Amino acid sequence: MGNIIDGKGMSEDLQERIKEEASMFTREHGRPPGLAVIVVGDDPASKVYVRNKEKACERAGIISFNYRLSSDKTHDEVVRLIKELNLRNDVDGILVQLPLPSHLDADQVLMTIDPSKDVDGFHPYNLGRLLMGLPTVIPCTPQGIMYMLRASGIDPDGKDAVVIGRSNIVGKPVATLLTLSHATVTICHSHTKDLDDKVKAADILISAVGKPRMVKGEWIKQGAVVIDVGITRDKDGKLTGDVDFDVARKRASLITPVPGGVGPMTIAMLLMNTITLAKGHVS
User: Fold this and answer.
1) 198 classed as catalytic
2) What is the biggest distance separating any 2 CA atoms in the chain, rounded to whole angstroms?
3) Is residue 239 a part of any domain in this protein?
4) Catalytic annotation on 159?
5) 177 with 138: CB under 8 angstroms?
6) Catalytic residue among 15, 53, 73, 198
7) In a domain, 95, yes or no
8) Is the domain of 161 the same as that of 248?
9) In the annotation, is 120 catalytic?
10) Position 86 in a domain
């Protein structure tokens, strides 16, 4: 029976350390680190996630500037707000909550953010530096995944890693981080043939698709480490991940639960990135 990777507990411990760093920054510079969060529209999942971010900022001593815009805002209006935030000295990080309404081009909106305030690490400049292995802002969920692996005593060096999903938010960045840690990485996606065979070879499996229990438990290699990023509701309304947890846990050595695994670590990394950017702005 695999051990549970307690992302919630790890996140709480890390947030205590972040709180100390934020307090020190505030004492030294006469202001707290600042995070601006822009939400466009009324996506229910976004509302819950943003509310959790706001509470986490408050606990950590990071000031949160919140902008809730109606879904009919134009591209120019959203961009104008971002450009104003780029110039503000009390704003260290800018986050645009995804998904955006369909009439807005997310890539164009994200590219408006000053790379030095790109707290999510989604700007092409920062993603390019990540690909080159240069110091940069690392996307929060991939960074949280790597933190969980290290904290659990897992060294990717020499291991076979399989990443299911190729988004710019999780799949591609985490595959890059694993490669930089000397794992041999296979990226799987909707066009992958024989997915079960790929998964069966994985020492480390990371699934970030958002399809309930698409990864069958019997596919998991004995002793593998399983990181389940997906979180959706099944037909019974229960929150569940991409991996059939009950069966997979019998085969995995370590596995993340859903909820309580990757999600809390994402928020902790957001706070950590805000502190890092704040330090860069005063150095």
Assistant:
1) no
2) 57
3) yes
4) no
5) yes
6) 53
7) yes
8) yes
9) yes
10) yes
Span 129-188, pLDDT tens digits: 999 999 999 999 999 999 999 999 999 999 999 999 999 999 999 999 999 999 999 999
| Contact present, 195 and 189 (Cβ < 8 Å) | no
Task: Kindly report the CATH number assigned to the domain that includes residue 53.
Answer: 3.40.50.10860
The residues near 65 (Cβ < 8 Å, ≥ 6 apart) are 34, 35, 36, 37, 85, 91
- Whole-prediction pTM: 0.95
Containing structural domain, residue 200:
140-263
pLDDT digits (tens, 9 = 90+) for 8-21: 999 999 999 999 99
Confidence of residue 269 (pLDDT cuts 50, 70, 90): very high
Both 167 and 253 in one domain: the answer is yes
Query: Rounded distance, CA 250 to CA 84, Å?
Result: 52
- Same structural domain, 150 and 38: no
Residue of 120, 203, 228, 244 marked active site? 120
Residue 16 lies in a domain: no
The arithmetic mean of pLDDT across residues 66-94, rounded, is 97
Of 15, 73, 92, 97, which residue is the catalytic one?
97
